[in-house]
Design brief:
Length: 430
């Protein structure tokens, strides 16, 4: 499920937006730009918070109505209402505020209600009183109630367990199930930079190198395990073929497809290369059974091999200074100097490390057929590489069937993806 339109009314009592997420663009990429303070990051946070773990965000921010239209012909209407003149314990501006209620109503495109969900002070305070995490964590040093409103909000916003508790307490299973079909992945501004400066922690590039090793090793194991299953059925396929005709043209076509799959798989040492015999009329049943078996085996790990090929292609295209890259299960990725010397990950420049970490996460960690939200990618990328962001996103969106939404100040990114850009300043002042 992807987002086709976002309407926001009275965001922070200032902004009204109606954003079309380029439903006609084949790349499914939208670039949000605009001056500081116009809500680019807030818009990404709104979309990122559409899951059971983050719904509290809609209670904290200020707006009157948010309408989100999806490509499956459903509409989510979120309203924030002020009910009584009672001081809110969780006021975002830390002043007296009217009590709020946030109501989520999911409708069909026709307006017929599907499910709903309510967020108010009553169920928030009930969760706080009964929530084990808060009692155990803060009773030893201070009481939760003694914290400032800002400290309370920061704790509750960032605590997934608390948000899940609230969601379940509402007992709206259908609403929560609907939310879970919307898979999003959020990369905040400065994420990679901040990770790189955590004390006593492994470098992000080392983490992703090890993660890639694990990904490829699992693929190898999957291939071996699945090969055994396929081979155990070989005799049955020969004796009782599930095909009626085995012409040479069909065999050659399938042979080309299998060889194409095998080429990438063998390149990254996920499986050994095998010989595929030429067509023989006398032994066609055996040949077809053998070829079908190879297709099943290779298809099992074709997704990871395609992702790895994309990762390799994008790394190679970056033109890292006097360096080449190799990818294999035993080392993940390995860089070599133009003289053939192996380079340790920490020997790469900080800009090179950031680029590699970013690309790895985009290719391997972002869920397929989901929504990718990126806040200011230019903070982690060299100026020269900012020019390639849009092209990289197009490749990733195509391979992983993603909807991608980028918030940026970068002139390089905006100019490259001008037809995909929504300017918040223009939307506000038109």
């Amino acid at each position: 499920m992807q987002i086709s339109r976002l309407q926001i009314k009275n965001l922070y009592d200032q902004y009204n937006y109606d954003i079309d997420f380029n439903s006609e663009e084949k790349e499914q990429i939208t670039i949000l730009t605009g001056p500081n303070g116009y809500g680019k990051t807030t818009i990404l946070r709104i979309l990122k918070s559409l899951n059971p773990k983050s719904l509290y965000y809609f209670y904290v921010i200020k707006f009157s109505e948010i309408i989100i239209s999806f490509d499956n012909n459903t509409v989510l209407n979120i309203t924030q209402n002020y009910k009584t003149e009672v001081e809110s314990i969780f006021a975002i501006d830390y002043k007296d505020e009217l009590e709020k209620e946030v109501r989520f109503i999911w409708n069909k495109a026709t307006g017929e209600p599907l499910t709903h969900f309510v967020y108010n002070r009553t169920n928030i305070e009930k969760a706080r009183r009964t929530y084990k995490f808060l009692r155990e964590t803060y009773s030893r040093r201070w009481k939760f109630d003694d914290l400032t409103n800002r400290e309370k909000e920061e704790i509750l916003l960032d605590n997934e367990e608390f948000n899940e508790y609230i969601a379940k307490a509402n007992r709206q299973k259908q609403f929560l199930m609907q939310l879970k079909t919307l898979r999003s992945y959020y990369i905040p501004a400065n994420r990679i930079y901040n990770e790189a400066h955590e004390e006593n922690d492994e470098l992000p590039i080392e983490k992703v190198r090890e993660a890639l090793m694990a990904e490829l090793e699992i693929a190898q194991q999957d291939y071996l395990r699945y090969s055994q299953e396929v081979d155990s059925k070989f005799i049955k396929k020969v004796l009782y073929p599930d095909y009626e005709d085995c012409p040479q043209a069909s065999y050659n076509k399938l042979k080309d497809e299998v060889e194409s799959l095998m080429k990438t798989i063998v390149k990254y040492k996920l499986a050994l290369k095998v010989e595929i015999p030429e067509y023989n009329e006398k032994n066609r049943a055996v040949l077809f059974a053998y070829l079908k078996g190879l297709e099943e085996k290779f298809s099992k790990i074709s997704t990871i091999s395609k992702k790895t090929e994309l990762f390799q292609e994008m790394l190679s295209s970056k033109g890292f200074a006097n360096k080449s890259v190799e990818i294999a299960p035993q080392h993940g990725f390995m860089f070599k100097s133009d003289k053939g010397d192996i380079l340790k990950a920490h020997q790469l420049s900080s800009g090179e490390q950031n680029e590699i970490v970013m690309l790895y996460r985009l290719v391997y960690e972002v869920p397929d057929q989901g929504i990718l939200l990126i806040d200011e990618p230019e903070n982690s990328l060299h100026v020269a590489w900012q020019k390639t962001v849009v092209d990289d996103m197009k490749k990733i969106a195509y391979i992983k069937r993603l909807q991608i939404i980028i918030a940026t100040h970068s002139p390089s990114i905006v100019s490259k993806g001008f037809s995909m850009t929504q300017d918040l300043y223009y939307l506000t002042n038109k």
